[in-house]
Design brief:
alpha+beta; Arc Repressor Mutant, subunit A; 8 helices; 12% strand; globular
Length: 213
Amino acid sequence: MEKIQPWATVCIKLLQGPIYRNNNNDPLWTLLDTWQSDIQRYFAVIGLKVVIDNSDGYAFLSQIDSPDDEENNSFNDETNYSALPKLIKEYPLSPNLSLLCVILREALDQFDASENQSVALVMKQSEIRDRLSSFIPETSDQSKVQAKLDSYLTRLCELTFLRELTEEQTQTFPGEIKDRTFEVRRIIRSKINAEFMEEFKNKLQKLTKDEAE
């Protein structure tokens, strides 16, 4: 019987989705850091690599696209990576979700540039709605707008771009209307990169210009 490796837990967690460093003494992250080479080799034999961002504290699995994509992979240069089944699913974003992601990414960049003492960017749903309102047409049916925004935010939580905070993690006052609160996770930078933002903004500007003419 094969011996279970000490880094097995990390591999299982990565197969379930992105993992995050909760603090400087996070045991799961310590395992990833200690056994990184072994973990990379383990996934490389099935055409996967672990993308690790130590500065922002997250890691996730990605497909290897070519031999040059991973130095320590177990395939030779003639491996046809495109012929391998896709284990890591890619979820296309709708235009509205893409817009929301761009807004959140910009908010995160502004937060980091401000040298705020807080570790994480925390935003209320009402604040996100205000930022989004300048890009969407006004409507009298605000309940419909709210419902759509709720669904978008829930979807981004499923994609781990956002983490919804519980009432115990946020400050609330008696009688206060519930306003969902989210942490904007820095993994959004790996998905919504500068090239994506530039391309999306250009398309948005063109669309706005066409509608005005």
